[in-house]
């Protein structure tokens, strides 16, 4: 029973949800089988560990049916029935969070039952709620469509022969709903095609794009996704991305946090190929996007800032030499990170900062305080240390670490092949730089430019250019 779907579902519930589920099962409206109530109460007592000896089928059966011989089929039936109740509980929990969806369904029932007084009051209240909504996330397009659909049904129920404005409204709201979601999913397909080389078919999106570009006004959220789509479709035509940035600045405060996060990430990912090419202005744009997303909590994972985001901001800001700003950022936001990686993230990024400032004693001080809570910091710290030894002309230490790091990479089975290759290529090319072979120097430069994947390509090119043997 330990590995059953029922136990998996129960383990996904926190203590409050599990208690509510027991109350749900105890309700005679949902369940009249008392054996199921005994089963869920017993399983609740075993949470959250659900020890193997406590949830063995024979043990559970004996608790529910004391003195009776074990019947595998009866227990399987109860488990399956309780699983179905669990699924229904999850659905209802989610449904009750959607007030507008519930209101639309209530309105539909008011129309069916000809309760006009109830309908008129709730319809006006629902319309007012939608109009006064402070943050938009795209769900309002669906709710407006549902509300208009119910209004059309209500008009028909009156059987009057006059103009029905709700009919136009339901068609318009259906268009708004379709346009927004068509663009939203098309943007995601374009993004995945860029990263995964996936082959998606973007049907009808060009027609939607052309239609919307001809309209005098578009819903702000739809317009943002329209310009995300245009930016990804035509990455070299910068006017689309400039328009997108203006729309984000204009409407960010009126967009729900989850949707705002998605929009920021689309904008950041658009800039990624530009920064890889070394186009200076896009480093500043990405840093500004990250900072805005951090300040308004859009880029937080729950209550914490991802240490990947934290490190990306530092790396990009150092690229444009915002040293003083980076130091403030590192110290101000380190406490926003998950406690388990907080100390390492702070020391690692301070080591990066001091390397860029040429303060190599401080680099070594912070690297020595790392506990390697994350593989990224372990590998990255070795690279920083190699670069530091190079800049300090500590050739013996450098060559020793290069050899040890290469062996570690080859032998460690927990590191993916792609990551291994990234760092092994760095070690190989740095070793070639150390050899200072004049005859092969130009070939080495070509290798640094062309080898893929390669960590620290920019730094390797710098040291190749300034250490050419004479």
Task: Report on this structure.
The chain is flat. It has 23 helices and two strands. Strands 1-2 form a two-stranded antiparallel ribbon. By secondary structure, the protein is mainly α. Helix 15 runs parallel beside helix 17 (339-357). The mean pLDDT is 94.
| Average predicted local confidence, pLDDT | 94
Spatial gap, N to C terminus:
74 Å
- Quaternary: single chain
- Tell me the Rg in angstroms: 30 Å
The percent range for strand residues is: under 5%
Trace the largest sheet across and list its strands. Answer: 1-2
Tally the beta strands: 2
Which class of secondary structure composition applies to the elements? mainly alpha
* Stretches with pLDDT under 50, minimum 5 residues: none
Quick structural overview:
With 470 residues, this protein is mainly α. 73% of the residues lie in helices and 1% in strands. Among the domains are: 5-97, no CATH class; 393-470, no CATH class.
Q: What is the topology?
A:
Layout: H1 5-11, H2 15-26, H3 34-46, H4 57-64, H5 72-97, H6 99-112, H7 116-131, H8 139-158, H9 165-196, H10 205-213, H11 220-233, H12 238-251, H13 257-276, H14 280-295, E1 300-301, E2 304-305, H15 307-319, H16 323-333, H17 339-357, H18 360-367, H19 375-391, H20 395-411, H21 417-435, H22 441-450, H23 457-466
Antiparallel strand pairs: 1-2
Task: Describe the structure using short key phrases.
470 residues, mainly alpha, two-stranded antiparallel ribbon
């Amino acid at each position: 029973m330990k590995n059953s779907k029922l136990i998996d579902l129960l383990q996904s519930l926190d203590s409050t949800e599990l208690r509510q589920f027991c109350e749900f099962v105890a309700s005679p409206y949902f369940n009249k089988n008392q054996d199921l109530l005994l089963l869920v109460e017993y399983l609740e007592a075993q949470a959250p560990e659900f020890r193997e000896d406590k949830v063995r089928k024979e043990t559970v059966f004996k608790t529910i049916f004391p003195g009776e011989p074990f019947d595998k089929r009866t227990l399987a039936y109860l488990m399956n029935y309780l699983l179905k109740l669990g699924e229904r509980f999850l659905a209802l929990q989610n449904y009750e969070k959607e007030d507008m969806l519930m209101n639309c369904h209530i309105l539909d029932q008011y129309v069916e039952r000809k309760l006009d007084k109830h309908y008129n009051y709730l319809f006006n209240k629902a319309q007012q709620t939608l109009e006064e909504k402070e943050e938009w996330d795209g769900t309002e397009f669906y709710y407006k469509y549902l509300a208009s659909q119910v209004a059309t049904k209500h008009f028909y129920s009156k059987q009057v022969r006059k103009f029905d404005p709700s009919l136009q409204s339901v068609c318009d709201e259906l268009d708004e709903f379709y346009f927004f979601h068509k663009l939203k999913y098309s943007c995601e397909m374009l993004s995945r095609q860029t990263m995964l080389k996936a082959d998606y078919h973007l049907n009808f999106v060009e027609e939607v794009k052309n239609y919307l570009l001809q309209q005098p006004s578009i819903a702000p959220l739809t317009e943002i996704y329209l310009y995300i789509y245009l930016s990804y479709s035509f990455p070299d035509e910068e006017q689309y991305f400039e328009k997108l940035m203006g729309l984000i600045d204009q409407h960010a405060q009126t967009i729900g946090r989850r949707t705002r996060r998605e929009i920021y990430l689309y904008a950041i990912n658009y800039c990624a190929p530009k920064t890889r090419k070394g186009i200076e202005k896009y480093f500043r744009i990405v840093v500004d996007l990250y900072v805005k997303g951090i300040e308004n909590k859009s880029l937080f994972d729950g209550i914490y800032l991802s240490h990947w985001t934290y490190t990306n901001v530092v790396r990009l800001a150092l690229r444009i030499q915002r040293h003083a700003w980076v130091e403030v950022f590192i110290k101000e936001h380190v406490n926003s990170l998950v406690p388990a990686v907080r100390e390492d993230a702070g020391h690692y990024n301070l080591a990066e900062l001091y390397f860029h400032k040429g303060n190599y004693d401080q680099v070594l001080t912070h690297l020595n305080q790392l506990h390697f809570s994350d593989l990224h910091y372990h590998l990255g710290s070795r690279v920083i240390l190699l670069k530091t030894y190079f800049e300090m002309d500590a050739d013996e230490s450098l060559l020793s670490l290069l050899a040890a790091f290469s062996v570690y990479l080859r032998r460690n089975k927990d590191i993916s092949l792609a990551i291994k290759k990234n760092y092994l290529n760095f070690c190989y090319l740095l070793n070639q730089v150390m050899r200072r072979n004049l005859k092969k120097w130009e070939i080495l430069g070509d290798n640094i430019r062309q080898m893929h994947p390669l960590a620290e390509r920019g730094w390797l090119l710098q040291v190749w250019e300034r250490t050419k043997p004479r």
